[in-house]
Q: What sequence folds into this?
């Protein structure tokens, strides 16, 4: 059984019993036995472990985990300390620097954001080594859609930062008017100059949080 260790356990307990999730679990057991899969199986649910339901202030949605050795650790866009930040993450840091003047950090581990209430959720939570999107359509999308639906039901305002086409499609799940949706291009080098750079999302996120009486996110990494 999955044990997240906070409110998500109770909120998702019925999801873990559904047929699609049982099939997903069986598929993952086989994948982890026969292939190299990222992240480590104990890190799959780190986004939910680091950021409990009632602590969520902002949501960043990624596509699927990094597929290179040692990169993915269960938080979208984040890599462990000592691992070179991938190009998309470097572009995120560049935008933060341009918006807020925060120095570009020497590592790419975003756990401090998660601990402040930024849920860093990939739409798909696992991937085969070297094969992006290899675990697309095995059930993860249904699971992470449920996470977003539960957040949508909350009566405390949340900022949803949706970068790129895949993430923007999740906007249809956010129907509660108290929430704020920010959309733009993906920070990938292929699209960052098509609207991610200059999006102002990090300032806009904090302005919204302050407007509803919440502590803004400190986007600087220690």
A:
């Amino acid at each position: 059984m999955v044990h997240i260790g906070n409110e998500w356990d109770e909120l998702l307990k019925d999801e873990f019993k559904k047929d699609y999730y049982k099939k997903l679990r069986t598929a993952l057991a086989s994948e982890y036995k026969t292939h190299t899969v990222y992240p480590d199986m104990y890190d799959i649910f780190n986004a939910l472990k680091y950021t409990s339901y009632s602590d969520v202030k902002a949501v960043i949605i990624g596509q699927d985990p990094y597929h290179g050795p040692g990169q993915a650790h269960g938080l979208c866009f984040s890599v462990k300390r000592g691992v070179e930040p991938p190009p998309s993450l470097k572009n995120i840091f560049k935008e933060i620097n341009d918006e807020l003047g925060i120095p570009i950090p020497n590592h790419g581990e975003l756990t401090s954001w998660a601990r402040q209430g930024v849920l860093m959720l990939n739409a798909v939570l696992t991937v085969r080594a070297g094969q992006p999107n290899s675990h697309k359509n095995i059930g993860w999308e249904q699971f992470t859609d449920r996470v977003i639906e539960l957040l949508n039901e909350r009566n405390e305002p949340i900022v949803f930062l949706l970068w790129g086409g895949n993430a923007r499609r999740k906007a249809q799940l956010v129907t509660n008017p108290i929430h704020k949706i920010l959309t733009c291009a993906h920070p990938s080098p292929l699209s960052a100059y098509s609207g991610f750079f200059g999006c102002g999302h990090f300032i806009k996120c904090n302005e919204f949080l302050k407007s509803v009486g919440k502590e803004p996110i400190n986007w600087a990494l220690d």
